Amino acid sequence: MKSTLLSLGLAALLSTPVFAQQHSEQNHSKYEWPKDSLVKQKLDQWQDIKFGLLMHWGTYSQWGVVESWSLCPEDEGWTVRRGPYASDWYGYKKAYENLQTTFNPTRFNPERWAEAAKAAGMKYMIFTTKHHDGFCMFDSKQTDYKITSSKSPFSSNPRSNVTKEILGAFRNQGFMVGTYFSKPDWNVDSYWWPYFPPKDRNVSYDPKKYPELWKKYQDFTYNQIQELMTDYGKVDILWLDGGWVRPASTIDSTVSWQRTIPYSQDIDMARIAGMGRQKQPGLLVVDRTVAGEFENYATPEQQIPDHYMPIPWESCLTMGNSWSYIPKENFKPTRKLVQMLVDIVAKNGNMLLNIAPGPDGEWHEEAYTRLKEIGAWMQINGESIYGTKPLAPYRQDQWAFTTNGKASYASYLPTETETALPATVTLPLAPSKAKATLTILGAKQPLKWKKAGNGIEISIPEKLRQQLAGQPVWVFKMG
Q1: CA angle 306, 241, 230 (to 5 degrees)
Q2: In 123-138, which positions are buried (b, 16+ CB within 10 angstroms) versus exposed (e)?
Q3: With CB atoms counted within 10 Å of each terminal CB, which end of the chain scores lower, N or C?
């Protein structure tokens, strides 16, 4: 697939096909730097912390199906309906929405999540307050399709307003926190108007022909976001999904999925962002794939750009194969997860790693194991990640480069068969000082090195090679 990402291709890192194409084709040359000084300050802070957690959680977790998308009447691989209600869309939608009456995550314990994420070195968190299906994981006054409704068994739990509980638990651990919110809502009559049955993910009527109905939807969306910005404590990021809800003027005809948007769906982002920043000064707004003043950072999905990008960006990636809970998940090895983070940071990005809670309100235990192992690496090597800037040549062969202004870091990403560092490595970058001290993070012993072409050749003692064997990434520090 061709990409227009600053005229650079995208290296598809993962096999999961879920909507990556919606983001990989996006043209980021239209990025607009924020003018608000508080937003700039928050963006700088966000760019320094590098590593975050995303969680997709909703009633769909009960069935272990792809989040919301089985409701979408499109003939795509990711929207296939399965199970006893699959043969009839209307019956399926009714059964899906009836999951509200059985969703009861009694093992919900956000403090455990926050502690595990902090121990892994994560420093910000985005939670799905509402996905495209419209089910609210917060106490919205605009709808009864929510976890706090008396229809939901969990509503009697003192922690039923899970968004409030989750944001609080992560804030208490020092995290920046964000609210994922879907601009489309497939549950309300002002989006999927029953008079016209939906044909696809888009609004089921032409907003130009029915302006009063669309205004009702705009107000509904505004009011729900206002609730999130008002009643849930400090919020740092408003992370908006559903990029087909956008003004016609922003549709990029060179992007295949945007060509299929039939109507202008202007949700009035200026009004939403203005309110959000009045309630939450400095709020980062991420109107995904809608380039311009309301996309404070770009969000390539299930992909890592293959080159350095000079704008703020974040790769959102799954720890397993799925965004939402499936009973048997295939988690990526720790080595791969750490290498993804190192690769992203060297190209000027952040990594947002998704873990999906199950219907009982708990993660797979394996997710905790992965986070603990990532944390062990970060404790030793975090200085090459946090508060750093990419250093040219950014990424070259198995090397990734960053700097914090005082020291430079060259990270060596081993192949799957490399369990120990070679006795001699050639670094394609020379230290700025002729008598620079060179060490490997995790060991204090200075290493011997000599000039070799445009780089240097480093000798690594056998004892050190054995001591540091088995690492996902080795980091050389040049001071």
Answers
A1: 125
A2: bbbbbbbbbbbbbbbb
A3: N
Please report the sign of the dihedral spanned by the C-alpha atoms of residue 285, residue 213, residue 152, residue 227.
positive
Q: How far apart are CA 262 and CA 253, in angstroms?
A: 12
Which residue matches tokens 């490595």? 425
Q: Dmax over Cα atoms in the chain, in whole Å?
A: 76
Q: Taking a C-beta distance cutoff of 8 angstroms, is the pair 357, 55 a contact?
A: yes
**Taking the CA atoms of the chain, what radius of gyration do you get in angstroms?**
23
Q: Which amino acid is at 95?
A: A
Contact 208, 269 (CB under 8 A): no
Q: Judging by DSSP bridges, how do beta strands 349-354 and 51-55 pair with one another? A: parallel
Instruction: State the number of CA atoms in the 13 A half-sphere of 233 facing the CB.
Output: 14
Phi, psi of 195 (to 5 degrees): -60, -40
Q: Which residue(s) pair with 316 in the sheet?
A: 301, 352
Residue type at 278?
A: Q
DSSP structure string for 297-359: SB--BS-EESS--SS-EEEEEESSS-SS--SS--PPPHHHHHHHHHHHHHTTEEEEEE----T
CA–CA distance, 236 with 251 (Å, rounded to integer): 28
The two beta strands, 448-452 and 455-459, are antiparallel
pLDDT at 25: 60
Averages of pLDDT over each 10 residues, the chain, 479 residues: 27 35 64 97 98 98 94 94 95 98 98 98 98 98 98 98 98 98 98 97 98 98 98 98 97 92 98 98 98 96 95 98 96 98 98 98 98 98 98 96 96 95 92 86 94 91 95 96
How are the residues of the chain apportioned to helix, strand and coil, as percentages rounded to the nearest 5? 30, 20, 50
DSSP conformation class of 29: G
By C-alpha distance, which of 100, 117, 119, 19 is closest to 60? 100
- Cite the beta strand spans of 370-423 per DSSP E: 389-396, 399-403, 408-412
